[in-house]
Design goal:
By secondary structure, the chain is α/β, with parallel strands linked by helices. It folds into two domains: about 180 residues, Rossmann fold, CATH 3.40.50.1100; about 100 residues, Rossmann fold. About 35% of the residues lie in helices and about 15% in strands. The protein has a six-stranded mixed beta sheet. The radius of gyration is 18 Å and the shape is globular. The relative contact order is 0.16. This is Cysteine synthase.
């Protein structure tokens, strides 16, 4: 008798139709892909598993090795889970203002957490990861430059969306952090139908939305190719958080702040076009943010 392992349940997440938040006067459909249903709770489970697996196949790492990664949260949690599952030690570097739930989740999987200041941010975390690798403390997978990050989505997220929409998807909307999700999914969907519109969401100049960034030019992820994105929408902090809360109260979907930003952009598009099938990524679960107060702003 053959039994499944945890790795078998990464991907094939639900794609659900929103029922109450979409303008009733539009004939467009908005579908949310619930990536919080992955084992470690986010879309980052896909590249975490793939980056380790492919590095193993190339002979670059082996079980028992120490891995190092800079993260704002979700990739770190996913890598901590994957490392526990696949037999690696994990050192994670993140800005110290990230939520308590994220830090506790990483520790629960056995990862060592190293914090940098909020001022140093993700740029500082990335620099420290490379410095630690140079000092021989471990191997950096580097989600920002590693092609196995977008390829995880090319081989899973994109095909799942195409399959579950019967090839009718017209728009794909994703918040942009490392840009792995939008790069890999765009690559696959554009191969199937070049007319599919790929829309990226980034914080506006005043927003600080966990997991997504407006990168300085020198820190732009190397996996990012601007030609794969048809449109970029700047998102305000207030609208992202407001939409996130409404997603929970109106649709029963408990997502994080970047998911609220992506959905706000998807709803904007639904009001601009007709007969569209718009897919947006709900990249993680809202319980990862409860201690920040975003779900109870008046409390």
């Amino acid at each position: 008798m053959s039994f499944s392992t945890l790795m078998d349940f990464v991907g094939n997440t639900p794609l659900v139709k929103l029922q109450r938040m979409v303008n009733p006067h539009t004939n467009s459909v908005v579908l949310a892909k619930l990536e919080g249903n992955n084992p470690a709770g986010s879309v980052k489970d896909r590249p975490a598993i793939n980056m380790i697996k492919q590095a193993e196949l190339r002979g670059e790492i082996k079980p028992g090795d120490t891995l190092i990664e800079a993260t704002s949260g979700n990739t770190g949690i996913a890598l901590a889970m994957a490392s526990a599952l696949m037999g690696y030690k994990m050192k994670l570097i993140m800005p110290n203002h990230m939520s308590m739930e994220r830090k506790a989740s990483m520790a629960a999987y056995g990862a060592e957490l190293i914090e940098v200041s909020q001022e140093e941010g993700m740029e500082g975390a990335r620099d420290l990861a490379l410095q630690m690798q140079q000092q021989g403390q471990g191997i950096v997978l580097d989600q920002f430059s590693n092609p196995d990050n977008p390829l995880a989505h090319y081989h899973s997220t994109g095909p799942e969306i195409w399959r579950d929409t019967d090839g009718k998807v017209t728009h794909f909307v994703s918040a942009m952090g490392t840009t792995g999700t939008i790069m890999g999914t765009s690559m696959f969907l554009k191969e199937q139908n070049p007319a599919v519109q790929i829309v990226g969401v980034q914080p506006d100049d005043t927003a600080s939305i966990p997991g997504i960034r407006r990168w300085p030019k020198e820190y732009m992820p190397k996996i990012y190719e601007a030609t794969r994105v048809d449109r970029i929408i700047d998102m305000s902090q207030n609208l992202a958080e407001q939409t996130m809360r409404e997603l929970a109260t109106a649709e029963g979907i408990f997502g994080g702040v970047s998911s609220g930003g992506a959905l706000a952009a998807a709803l904007q598009i639904a009001n601009e076009v007709e007969n569209a099938v718009i897919v947006t990524i709900v990249c993680d679960r809202g319980d990862r943010y409860l201690s920040t107060g975003v779900y109870n702003p008046a409390g």
